[in-house]
Amino acid sequence: MFDAQRERVAATLACQWPCSTSLLILAWLFGRGPLAQPQPFRLFVLLMNIPALPAAPSDRRVVSLRSIPPTCCTAAALGAVHYALACCRLNGWLLRLLQCLLPYLFASTAMELPALAFTLLSGLPVAVPFNRPFLSASIREFWGRWNLDGSRRFRMAAYEPVLSGCSKGPAGAAKHRAAQRASQLRRWAAVFAAFALSGAIHEMFFFYIVRRPSGGWLLFFCLQAPLMLVESRLRQLAGQAGLRPPRLLKQAATLGVMCLMGQWLFVPGALELLDLFAERFRTCHTYSFCSPA
């Protein structure tokens, strides 16, 4: 019933949650994150087993029972887009648009379900995993809206330790003062470290299933920090020249850059994995219900 590749697919899906937990443990080693503070036993168990974090005071949009219908709509849209890509002959801009939309719908569905479970079991609010990243007017804002739970984990496990020189300590005034004294070089090194860690984990998942590098996932994430640096410099130059582009233009430019990079480096591997998951699901379904006893 199971072959080697199907077992790798199942193991990879099952290991995504322990990987999220390992980021919390890595942050705890540096004295950061929720595990660095005393927690009730029930909350500790949930933090160790569900990839979701309680909402921060600054989070405006949180997961609640009202999030169930939108989550169901996202899952339905995921199925519709995958069906269109698999069964319809598409080309041109519509094909590229759906190819870029598919990873977002998949990741959004995969993150919103655990967030709902965490909220129902703990009674604590959880920040929405994806805060409408398509409204972003900069690459920095895009990653501030994309996968908020993952962003917080990588910030605690990589960004903050590099920014403060890997010194231990809770996230408080001391860390803030250290951040204020940090050089610009260290800040950008911290940004690169967070993206590089994310890219390495994504690449590891792909390699474990397909048994070869994706050819682009690690590069996709590692290029985000240089892009943000260029974006920051362009913003400074525009300000010095007295230019204030409208937000709509900046949104279009941001989405254009992210879609182009995604089409070049990320989407091919994502489509390959999603097709593999769908193929394995169909094979398992056929075996279970159509094979002779």
TrEMBL record:
Record-linked InterPro entries: Wax_synthase, Wax_synthase_dom
Transmembrane region(s): 9-29, 105-130, 188-209, 252-271
Entry's Gene Ontology BP terms: lipid metabolic process
Keywords: Membrane, Transferase, Transmembrane, Transmembrane helix
Residue span(s) of domain Wax synthase: 130-222
PANTHER family (UniProt xref): LONG-CHAIN-ALCOHOL O-FATTY-ACYLTRANSFERASE 3-RELATED, OS04G0481900 PROTEIN
Protein name, per record: Acyl---sterol O-acyltransferase 1-like
Annotated organism of origin: Chlorella sorokiniana
Source taxonomy: Eukaryota, Viridiplantae, Chlorophyta, core chlorophytes, Trebouxiophyceae
